[in-house]
């Protein structure tokens, strides 16, 4: 037997034993003999100290007493030599009486050590399990959970009840999970088999599970040899987020249109992004490991470089607008920002991140915007903004050196007409030509600017006397003597110039500009193509004009207009054959304003359209009233201004008025001036044609003052020429005037037109006109413009007898 065996009799005396018995206790040979007393044998062991400290006889007594009970017993005994024996006592019976006992002594030292080692391992495992940051579960081959740690329950939110009173089967946990949707939605049984199958799969596997609450856990299962499984659960939610962030950051880095350079704490380049290579021309490999000092050499001055590092160490940031140099040597503007990444451990900086973009296009755009803001887009000349800035500067200089500055307002004559009739494209090109011409006539030190429209301003900061200014102004006017060419068009334009001088005509930019503007209006009023110096009187006129313009705006709605009618006589019959409607304006609280004063304003401001329509409607209404009252039919002559005539809707307005009043069209005569008719003959012919087709008669007013082309005159579908008053005034004194009047009458007769002489103020004038065959006459000598009532008295009823011309002539006026 491998164990020691000893048999003691009922007297506790040794009767039988084997070799192992003596060996396991290492008894001296003489002490083990048949009949040796139990207590003596024990004493040897006790003396040797195997039972520990204490009274030896006491150890012996306790053990002997125990033995004397003859009860089955089993106990470990570890001797001083460190070996452990398993001692097992078994009572022996003979004839139903206790006959002694048999003891076996098994050396279980090895087994004890293994057990100890196991216990140790187990405690390590326990410590690891309880302290590991992840959850761990251990499942045996029968898929029964053997152990798990608290984290396992926490990470998976498993309630303690599941683990009470005993560890559950894995199936219960899977079922519990499936029910609360841990594996997604669907059939719980299916999930159960799937998960079980996965658990059964024998290789080590790692997988991720996103829990319904959004956390992500990593599960790593390792199969055990017995078919069990160790599973480790780690909450990787944070790691996942960090990874996501990192991936995004990488995307930004890779795809940013902005160049990004990352440097280490010493400034050496660690990484650059594709945009960096694109902008600089340097490949990644060419710059990684370089010091930025090399990168920025040629881009930053020593001083700026030093400032950059100072700023970085002090506030962790630097930015600046600098010129970069590409690999090919080309310079480009860039906006560079450097950020230092704080190092939490050392307190210094762990990295530096430089970012920049090529701002060439932005710079270009800025320059373009600057140009646009400061220059007129069409002509490239300085605009109002720049002009005022330069003028302010010139005025400052003039104040300091006690010198003077001249400001010229240059306005293209009749530009509106060209623009309106030929279109903006032609108008624009004409303005460019004008800008060039003006620029060509001034000196280097002068500024030519365009305010907008056809308004140009020239600032002359430096001149000796006003003679210099006049010479310059004349040079400008002369430069327009040659026609301007735009495509196939040839323009004979002229300019009107207003001049003001600092400080005489204004002490501020606004004041001198205003004075020059006023002078320019004056030049225009004086017949264009001339220049005028500003005088205080002009200011007065300009103010008056402005006041008038403001009042005029309300004249129609306030019913401040009225019409007077001047009779027109037929030379042969000496009867009133018509009246000319002449507008009168009686502003509220003021005297009568002559049409010569307000018609031009109405023309310029466009108010003439409404006013003209009113005149047309009112005159026709009046004629209708007269006719309805039984007055003999007479012709109504209505003046049509140039702008009114050019309105697209004009013929429609006339037709509508005729329709409304139901007047016979032949009783309406429209007067347009010679200038209006000749400005755009083609267009004029077309409009006149359409009016003629309505049955209206047409007269050319102020004939002789414009420049009629006879060939055009021939083509105009007109009925009458009205010889301008200026030729009639001296017809009886000036042979030239008489010749003109006579020629005009002859011309009209040749063209088959009737002739009316205007402004007949005397009998002798009347005589000459009659002698030359003039058809009709109109003038103070025959009748002033009067109210409608007076006309009603003058014109007989359609049935009344004729009132002769001579009667009227002799009447007191
Ligand atoms: P106009 O068309 O040449 O009208 C004739 C002008 O000569 C009228 O002046 C009339 O009063 C004046 N007149 C008539 N006989 C004599 C005379 O013997 N001697 C002198 N010195 N003058 C005489 P008025 O009414 O002041 O009108 C001036 C201008 O205003 C008109 O010249 C016409 O161009 C314009 N005008 C008048 N009424 C209207 C209107 O309703 N519409 C438009 N567009 N213009 C009008
Ligand atoms: Ca007229
Ligand atoms: Ca006239």
Structural features, described:
With 813 residues, this protein is of the alpha+beta class. Helices cover 44% and strands 24% of the residues. It is built from 31 helices and 30 strands. The protein has an eight-stranded mixed beta barrel, surrounded by four helices. Helix 2 packs antiparallel against helix 3. The longest helix is centred in the first third of the chain and has 23 residues, at 109-131. It is elongated. The N and C termini lie far apart (174 Å). Mean pLDDT is 88; it is low at 800-813. The protein binds ligand C2E and calcium ion (CA) (2 copies).
Brief summary of the model shown:
Helices cover 44% and strands 24% of the residues. The structure holds ligand C2E and calcium ion (2 copies).
**Radius of gyration from CA coordinates:** 62 Å
Q: How does the overall form come out from the CA principal axes? A: elongated
From the helix content, strand content and strand pairing, which structural class follows? alpha+beta
Q: How many angstroms separate the termini?
A: 174 Å
Distinct helical segment count: 31
Helix content: 40-55%
Question: What number is the mean pLDDT?
Answer: 88
Q: Beta-sheet strand percentage?
A: 15-25%
Largest beta sheet: strand ordering: 23-24-25-26-27-28-29-30
Give the number of DSSP strands: 30
Ligand types: ligand C2E, calcium ion
Poorly predicted regions are 800-813
Largest sheet: 8 strands, mixed, barrel
């Amino acid at each position: 037997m491998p164990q020691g065996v000893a048999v003691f009799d009922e007297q506790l005396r040794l009767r039988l034993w084997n070799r192992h018995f003596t060996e396991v206790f290492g008894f001296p040979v003489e002490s083990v003999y048949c009949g040796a007393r139990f207590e003596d044998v024990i004493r040897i062991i006790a003396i040797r100290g195997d039972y520990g400290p204490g009274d030896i006889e006491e150890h012996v007594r306790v053990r002997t007493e125990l033995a004397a009970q003859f009860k089955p017993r089993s106990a470990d005994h570890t001797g001083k030599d460190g070996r452990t024996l398993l001692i097992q006592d078994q009572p022996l019976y003979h004839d139903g009486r206790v006959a002694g006992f048999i003891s076996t002594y098994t050396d279980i030292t090895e087994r004890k050590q293994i057990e100890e080692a196991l216990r140790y391992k187990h405690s390590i495992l326990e410590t690891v399990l309880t302290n590991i940051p992840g959850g761990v579960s251990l499942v045996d081959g029968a898929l029964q959970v053997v152990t798990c740690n608290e984290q396992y329950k926490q990470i998976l939110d498993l309630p303690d009840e599941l683990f009470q009173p005993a560890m559950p089967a894995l199936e219960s946990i899977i079922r519990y999970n499936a029910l609360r949707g841990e594996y997604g939605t669907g059939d719980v049984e299916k999930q159960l088999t799937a998960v079980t199958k996965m658990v059964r799969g024998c290789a080590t596997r790692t997988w991720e599970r996103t829990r319904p609450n959004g956390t992500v856990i990593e599960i790593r299962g390792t199969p055990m040899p017995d078919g069990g499984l160790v599973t480790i659960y780690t909450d990787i939610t944070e790691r996942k987020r960090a990874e996501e962030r990192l991936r995004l950051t990488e995307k930004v880095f890779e795809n940013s249109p902005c160049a990004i350079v990352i440097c280490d704490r010493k400034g050496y380049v660690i990484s650059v992004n594709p945009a960096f290579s694109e902008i600089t021309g340097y490949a990644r490999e060419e710059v990684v490991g370089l010091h930025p000092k090399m990168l920025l050499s040629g881009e930053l001055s020593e001083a700026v470089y030093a400032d950059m590092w100072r700023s970085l160490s002090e506030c962790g940031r630097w930015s600046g607008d600098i010129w970069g140099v590409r690999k090919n040597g080309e310079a480009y503007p860039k906006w560079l920002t450097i950020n230092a990444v704080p190092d939490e451990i050392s307190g210094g900086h762990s990295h530096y991140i430089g970012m920049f973009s090529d701002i060439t296009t932005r710079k270009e755009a800025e320059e373009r915007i600057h140009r646009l803001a400061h220059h007129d887009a069409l002509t490239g000349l300085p605009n109002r903004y720049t002009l005022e800035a330069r003028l302010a500067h010139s005025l400052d200089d003039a104040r300091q050196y006690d010198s003077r500055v001249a400001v010229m307002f240059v306005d293209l004559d009749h530009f509106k007409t060209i623009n309106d009739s030929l279109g903006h494209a032609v108008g624009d090109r004409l303005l460019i030509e004008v800008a060039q011409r003006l620029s060509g006539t001034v000196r280097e030190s002068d500024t030519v600017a365009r305010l907008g429209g056809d308004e140009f301003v020239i600032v002359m900061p430096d001149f000796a006397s006003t003679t210099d200014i006049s010479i310059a102004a004349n040079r400008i006017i002369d430069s327009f003597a040659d026609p301007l060419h735009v495509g196939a068009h040839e323009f004979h334009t002229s300019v009107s110039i207003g001049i003001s001088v600092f400080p005489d005509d204004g002490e501020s930019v606004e004041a001198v500009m205003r004075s020059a503007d006023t002078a320019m209006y004056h030049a225009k009023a004086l017949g264009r193509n001339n220049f005028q110096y500003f005088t205080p009187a002009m200011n007065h006129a300009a103010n008056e004009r402005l006041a008038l313009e403001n009042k005029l705006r309300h004249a129609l709605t306030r019913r401040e207009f009225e019409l007077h009618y001047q009779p027109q006589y037929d030379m042969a019959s000496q009867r009133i054959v018509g009246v000319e409607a002449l507008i009168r304006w009686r502003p509220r609280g003021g005297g009568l304003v002559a049409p010569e004063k307000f018609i031009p304003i109405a023309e310029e401001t466009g108010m003439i359209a409404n006013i003209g329509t009113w005149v047309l409607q009112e005159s026709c209404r009046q004629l209708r009233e007269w006719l309805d009252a039984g007055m003999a039919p007479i012709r109504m002559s209505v003046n049509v201004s140039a702008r009114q005539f050019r309105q697209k809707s004009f013929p429609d307005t006339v037709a509508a008025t005729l329709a409304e009043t139901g007047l016979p069209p032949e009783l309406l005569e429209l007067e347009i001036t010679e200038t209006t008719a000749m400005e755009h003959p083609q267009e004029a012919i077309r409009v006149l044609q359409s009016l003629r087709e309505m049955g209206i008669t047409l007269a050319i007013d102020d004939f002789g003052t414009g420049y009629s082309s006879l060939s055009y005159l021939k083509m105009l579908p007109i009925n009458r020429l009205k010889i301008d008053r200026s030729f009639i005034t001296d017809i009886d004194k000036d042979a030239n005037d008489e010749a003109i009047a006579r020629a005009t009458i002859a011309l009209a007769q040749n063209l088959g037109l009737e002739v009316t002489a205007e402004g007949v103020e005397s009998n002798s004038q009347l005589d000459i006109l009659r002698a030359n065959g003039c058809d009709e006459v109109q003038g103070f000598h025959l009748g002033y413009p009067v109210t409608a009532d007076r006309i009603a008295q003058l014109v007989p009823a359609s049935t009344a007898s004729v009132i002769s011309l001579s009667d009227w002539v002799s009447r007191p006026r």
